[in-house]
Amino acid sequence: MGGVTRLDDLPLRDHLRGMTPYGAPQVALPVALNVNENTHPVPEEVAGDILDAVAMALRDVNRYPDREFAALREGFAEYLGYGLTREQIWAANGSNEVLQHILQAFGGPDRTAFGFAPTYSMYPLLTRATGASWVAGTRAADFSVDAGSAAAQVAEAQPDVVFLCAPNNPTGTPMTLEVIEAVYDATEGIVVVDEAYQEFAPRDSGSALALLPGRERLVVSRTMSKAFAFAGARVGYLAADAAVVDALRLVRLPYHLSSLTQAAANAALRHAPTMLGMVDEIVAQRDRISATLAAIGYKPYESWTNFVLFGGLHDAAATWQGLYDKGVLIRDVGIPQHLRVTAGTEPETTAFLEALASLDSAS
Ligand SMILES: *Cc1c(COP(=O)(O)O)cnc(C)c1O
Questions:
Q1: Cα–Cα distance list, 104 to 97, 248, 249, 299, 313 (Å)
Q2: Taking CB atoms and a 6 Å cutoff, what residues make up the pocket around ligand 1?
Q3: Which atom of ligand 1 is nearest to 119's Cα?
Q4: Mean per-residue pLDDT for 91-96?
Q5: Residues 251 and 283 in one domain
Q6: Residue nearest to atom 4 of ligand 1 (CA)
């Protein structure tokens, strides 16, 4: 006996064997453009207000937090608009936990969840962790999905939960409301539209929130991690029929949102326009990345997000390493000959573009 214990030595649940944890590298490089964070810090005037709110909450931290986070749900309902009420809002520690709650309630053993690959890598991980199986659908060569194909694939798979990442990570691809409606009509399962990047889409593009009335199996999830520059605070939320929210209460841990998190998120929400003030600047850097990449011979895909997927690389791993060696961290998302880069501040974006040009590896 003795020695190092390996996972295989433990009585691990069978369906977890062979799985790998989510593992985007976390290394301290000068320019980190790998996990689609908002690289602009929280504005000074808002940071002060958040600190005050957290300090107030700390005085009562001997008590459990408001289990129903009523003020925060009210705030999200108001921020989202569309006539939503707080009964239709749910929140958790990042939208990852929101998605996990959905799978705990509607996925689980003997059930399936479905998404159009390539898509957000957490969907299959969260799905399998609840004991459900993951079914991957397909996209066109440009990573788009049209309504006819989407509906046919979903009708064929008969999933219990469908994830529509709109716009899609890691490709940036927009998804029309027509596709979402067609998928909803093709299934009796829960349809989750993950709008993590919605604030970076063109202003006149529709949100799936408009489709909620009359569709009690539709769920629209959002996060404060990207546009709101709040990734470290861990706050995600969703809007859906009040009955869906009731279902999620069955699986959440009591008091899952700490009073400090609630206070910080409430304060940040009160300053939504300031918090979102950097979105236009980030969109400008995203479009600059796309234009520059195309001009130097790479193949950027249309993006409605804060990142750009680009192809045309001989050897994506070598380019990734070359950039790393120059202090620029981007993401190899596992699509051959492609890499993904987050739009940073102007100087960060310049550093990325100059480092890439100096590697000169476009095919
Ligand atoms: C970043 C991201 C999220 C956000 O996750 P949080 O847990 O809220 O930080 C959700 N969905 C997609 C597709 C993402 O890219």
A1: 10, 8, 11, 39, 40
A2: 36, 94-96, 120, 165, 169, 194, 196, 223, 225-226, 231, 236
A3: 13
A4: 98
A5: no
A6: 95
